[in-house]
């Protein structure tokens, strides 16, 4: 029987620790490559270990990384992000004019589908076996909305975490739950992640960073 408040607090801490995510730190300095959509439009990505600084001046591009197989069945992820210069609110369900400050993509593929190790992100996003969860800071939408994406159609879903604007925040998302909500099935293999900033349609500026990203399974 627990008799003191300090004992109750100690038990609470133990229970919370047991529920923590066993996660791997993401190093933005290793294994990442930029995916451009135009030779004339490219963001500036400045990786420094666990922090990625992003500068977008009327431009759009992605930074992309394949994940090791040990992380293929990850169920949770968390990260910090900050925006100090923001694009205006836009409608993210429409092609053209759908700028957003930051998007964090999680790309899934079935166990029996093995894309080439050097496959570009654009090729994976065009694969009908792929499924993509996209977490967004931007748009004129409310936190918690799940939107179709005009580029991926039934292959992807947009989860609004923050509407357009500046600030800083910490996020934790459940990939397994969100995959089920988006596609109605159990998650396939997580094979990669990407981060983008998009300011080309509104010809505005983004100043942002993503840091302290962890990916793993709940213990």
What does this structure look like?
- The protein is mainly beta.
- The chain has a single domain (21-218), classed as Jelly Rolls.
- The chain is built from 3 helices and 13 strands.
- The strands form 2 sheets. A 7-stranded mixed beta sheet has the order 2-5-12-7-8-10-9. Strands 1, 3, 4, 6, 11 and 13 form a 6-stranded antiparallel beta sheet that branches.
- The longest helix has 14 residues, at 5-18.
- It starts with a helix and ends with a strand.
**Helical element count?**
3
Beta-strand content bin? over 45%
CATH class membership: Mainly Beta
Ends distance:
26 Å
Structural class: mainly beta
Instruction: Tally the structural domains.
Output: 1
CATH architecture: Sandwich
Shape: globular
- In the CATH hierarchy, the third-tier topology is known as Jelly Rolls
Largest sheet: 7 strands, mixed
Radius of gyration: 18 Å
Unreliable spans: 1-19
**How many β-strands, per DSSP?**
13
What's the helix and strand layout?
Layout: H1 5-18, E1 21-25, E2 33-36, E3 44-48, E4 51-57, E5 60-66, E6 76-85, E7 100-109, H2 121-125, E8 131-137, E9 146-149, E10 153-162, E11 167-174, H3 175-183, E12 189-198, E13 205-218
Parallel strand pairs: 8-10
Antiparallel strand pairs: 1-13, 2-5, 3-4, 4-13, 5-12, 6-11, 6-13, 7-8, 7-12, 9-10
């Amino acid at each position: 029987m627990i008799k003191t408040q300090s004992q109750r607090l100690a038990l609470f801490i133990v229970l919370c620790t047991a529920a923590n995510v066993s996660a791997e730190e993401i190093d933005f300095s290793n294994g990442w490559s930029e995916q451009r959509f135009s030779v004339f439009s490219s963001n500036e990505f400045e990786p420094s270990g666990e922090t990625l600084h992003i500068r977008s001046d009327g431009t759009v591009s992605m930074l992309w990384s394949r994940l090791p197989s040990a992380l293929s069945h990850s169920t949770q992820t968390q990260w910090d992000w900050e925006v100090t210069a923001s694009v205006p609110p836009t409608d993210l369900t429409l092609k053209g004019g759908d700028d957003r400050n930051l998007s964090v993509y999680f790309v899934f593929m079935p166990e029996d589908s093995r894309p080439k190790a050097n496959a570009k992100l654009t090729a994976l996003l065009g694969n009908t076996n792929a499924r993509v969860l996209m977490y967004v800071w931007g748009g004129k939408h409310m936190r918690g909305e799940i939107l179709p994406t005009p580029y991926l159609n039934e292959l992807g879903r947009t989860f609004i975490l923050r509407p357009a604007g500046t600030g800083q925040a910490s996020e934790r998302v459940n990939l397994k739950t969100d995959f089920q909500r988006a596609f109605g099935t159990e998650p396939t293999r997580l094979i990669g992640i990407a981060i983008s900033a998009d300011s080309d349609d509104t010809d505005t500026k983004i100043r942002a960073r993503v840091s302290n990203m962890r990916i793993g399974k709940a213990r």
